[in-house]
Amino acid sequence: MLKEHSTFIKQAIAAIDVVLIVLAFYITHGLVAEFRFLSVLPTYWPMLVGFTAFYLYFAWTRHLFSILQFNWMHGLASRVVMIFISAGILGAAILYMVPDSYTSRTFYLVFAGLAFVFIAAEKLLLKELFAQLRRSNRNTTPIILFGRGRIAAQLMQEINMHPEWGLRIVRKLDLSISPVQFEEVLKTSYIEEVFFCIPRAISREGFRIDPYLRTCEDMGRPARVFLNLSSATHFARWEYHQFMSHATLVSHTVELDPDQEIFKRAFDIAGSLVGILILMLFYPWLALAIKLTSRGPVFFKQVRVGRNGKRFVIYKFRSMYMDAEERKEELEAKNELQGAVFKLKDDPRVTPVGGLIRRLSLDEFPQFINVLKGEMSLVGTRPPTPSEVSKYQKWHHRRISTRPGITGMWQVSGRNKITDFDEIVKLDLKYIDSWSIWLDITIIFKTFLVFFRQDEAY
Question: Domain 141-232 has what CATH class?
Fold first, then answer.
């Protein structure tokens, strides 16, 4: 049994964290009550229960309790910060759904801050404790490193450089060892796990890993197989997923973190509801202005290409004359962007009021309906038309591997100064590769700055 899979240890650490959170809750009540009036402590139980529940969920899914895992120490500080920010925001949302008599903002902020200090101190203490134990060759896992190639050499170097991982290489075996010899090594050695590092090209030499894996299975020794797939792709991530009864490795270029996906969708729904309320306020005046200055409907509808090629109908306030699509072909020669997108500053197809609507970005507000429907996100890449996608180079297609957005990296990076579509795609791919909910919040903040600076849009 692998030490790093101890459920009891995880539950014990989770219980300690709950005790620390409750302790922070009690201490905070006493501290805050010295400066302002607070009700009796049981009054604020929704605050404690809500925050603790969200903390346990995020901490469990981000392996904060898995202290025996080899990579538990990796990114520990950033994980604790992100967990508390996520739990704190969702916990604060709970407070808005309970009566004011059951909550106190000052109490909540001090409580969350003190709980963070307690938990962070505990994790850092555990990290240092385990590091010291493992550096002194205690609580270590003896392993065999079986294989050859760049991955095997790199792995051996990393294990030797990081004794705090708790791994101790007892033997290094080459692929030339026979299954019978390998079995004898396992019989005569104290080994808790075998690390297999097999190069992809080894199949040409007729090597088969199956007999060695079956030997580990028959003798009850865990086997960890390192697949040299990273060099097969340039930047894709590889993750293990169970498909029915089959083991699979999934290659993807978009972060597949279900927690952040859920948080992003909740963020989109909340933002779209606010946007739709603003849309309802502007609608009567914009509808009247559009109708009085040009013939045609108030809303412009167009088929766009969304995530992974899924098509949907986008909604915008109409800012062009009705024959805009027919006239686009005759204006192609004046396109100010190089590549598979059309942009023209003094576009003759834009109506008089359409120019004002575009400069203020008011034409984008109906897209909050697309966000609410799940076809778009608040932040993402701009959704192209099918005709634009037909002109894409192969690498351009990755920009539509994520849900399109109302705003994005291009919009806040001086979009009117970029004249090459390839540069736009590079910004989109930068967003995709570094995506996080906090990047979305940053882009939204920058979008407001662009709007208030009255940057010209067309």
Answer: alpha beta
